[in-house]
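Archive maintenance. Older records in this collection stored only the sequence; we are now back-filling the structure field for every entry so that each record is complete. The fields below show one back-filled record exactly as it appears after the update. Entries are processed alphabetically, and V-type proton ATPase subunit is next in the queue.

ARCHIVE ENTRY
Title: V-type proton ATPase subunit
Organism field: Drosophila grimshawi
Length field: 85
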Amino acid sequence: MGAAFFPLLFFTAVWGAVGIGMPIMTPKGPHQNLIRCILMLTAACCWLFWLCCYMAQMNPLIGPRLKRHALAMIAKSWGNKLVEG
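Back-filled structure field:
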């Protein structure tokens, strides 16, 4: 199970627009450079956080814990026999 191309492209474009496009549109003033820096850092951190969460779903460390009754119902509905062991 690998990464899908569309979500990676979409969220990279969204955070790229925030980090590149928004600083261009900042109003003139004494704090323009600070606002630009904040926007670029926000975009970089949010994109990195999203990427880490997205990649963590590809190989989860902890799987779901199902009760025996739930496993029996799933096995029955899928037409499989529940193996003891």
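Update note: Residues 4-78 form one domain. The chain has a mean pLDDT of 90.
Entry marked complete.
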